[in-house]
Structure formats: structure tokens, C-alpha cells
Design a protein that fits this description.
mainly alpha; binds iron/sulfur cluster
């Protein structure tokens, strides 16, 4: 099987003060159970109380971060376009722009590149393929999400 195009590495460096990837109305951030624990601890709340305050459930029951009612943007993005929970942000936010759907085709990647000045930026470093692959897996894991707290154990597929 041929290695994916990004396995040879991609030039990227997140640009300070940018925040464009979060400044998207209607964006959805799926939460892993570890995200919920970490963010609840940061907010000094129980996970149940934090989920009630900062998360909602999609039509199929998975927990996602809440967005502001007035513009559909993440509740944690402040007026300076900075993330208010950056140090403990969800795994899916950390994994951007290395989401499977972004890397799936040239067309998808070109679209991400139009909105993310970090890709091929002048100060970009090469992010190696193994690191990218870890982000792709993390994004995929987060997308599976959880629907109850405490989360139900996953059924093994034999
Ligand atoms: S759009 Fe790209 S450069 Fe801007 S904050 Fe997001 S990841 Fe960083």
C-alpha cells in the first residue's frame, strides 16, 4: 500500500494571534472522555456540571463543545481571537489541521490551506509524518466521542 502524501512531512507553524480555525460559525468539536475530565478539572467543576455548562449533545448523543448562540462560534474563543482554555483544549483542536477529512484529498487540503496561514508559512517547520499520523488517530478517536457520563465501556469487535 502506498504511504499517504503527507507521510514525507508538511510545512506548518501555527501563527500567533491567528485563531481562524476556531473563528468558524457552526464548527463542531467532538469531545473525548479525557477532554471532558481535563476541562472539568481546569474549570474546577465535576465532569457532570462541566458537561452541563460547556457541552451539548448532538442528534446521535455525542458530546461536543457548546457554541455561542449569537454567532455559532466556540464559547471559549475570546474577543482577541484567543482560546480561553488553550493549555487544556480538546484533542480535536490540538489535532488541527491534521484531521482525516482535511488530508483525504488535494481538494480538501487546498481548502484548509486557504484558511490556515500556518500551512507553508515563512516560519514553518516540517511536521513529520509520524506526528501527523498521531494527530489523525487522535482526531478519529475524538470523533467517536462519548454519550454518557461515566462513559460506557466500548464493545470489542471480534
Ligand atoms: S488557522 Fe492555522 S495558523 Fe491560524 S490558529 Fe488555526 S492552526 Fe494556527
Amino acid at each position: 500500500m502506498r504511504a499517504p502524501w503527507w507521510m514525507k512531512g508538511v510545512h506548518f507553524s501555527c501563527q500567533s494571534g491567528c485563531g481562524r480555525c476556531c473563528d468558524q460559525p457552526g464548527g463542531i468539536v467532538y469531545l473525548s472522555s479525557d477532554d471532558a475530565k481535563r476541562l472539568a478539572e481546569h474549570a474546577q467543576l465535576s465532569v457532570i456540571d462541566w458537561l452541563e455548562r460547556d457541552a451539548r449533545q448532538t442528534h446521535d448523543g455525542r458530546y461536543v463543545l457548546k457554541s455561542r448562540e449569537e454567532d455559532g462560534i466556540c464559547i471559549h474563543l475570546n474577543e482577541q481571537k484567543q482560546c480561553g482554555v488553550y493549555q487544556v483544549r480538546p484533542q480535536q483542536c490540538r489535532a488541527f489541521p491534521w484531521w482525516g477529512e482535511n488530508l483525504a484529498s488535494d481538494r480538501a487540503w487546498k481548502k484548509v490551506k486557504e484558511n490556515c496561514p500556518g500551512i507553508d508559512a515563512e516560519d514553518a517547520i516540517i511536521v513529520d509524518g509520524h506526528t501527523i499520523r498521531l494527530h489523525v488517530f487522535a482526531d478519529r478517536e475524538s470523533s467517536k466521542g462519548f454519550r454518557t457520563w461515566p462513559p460506557e465501556p466500548r464493545r470489542r469487535k471480534w
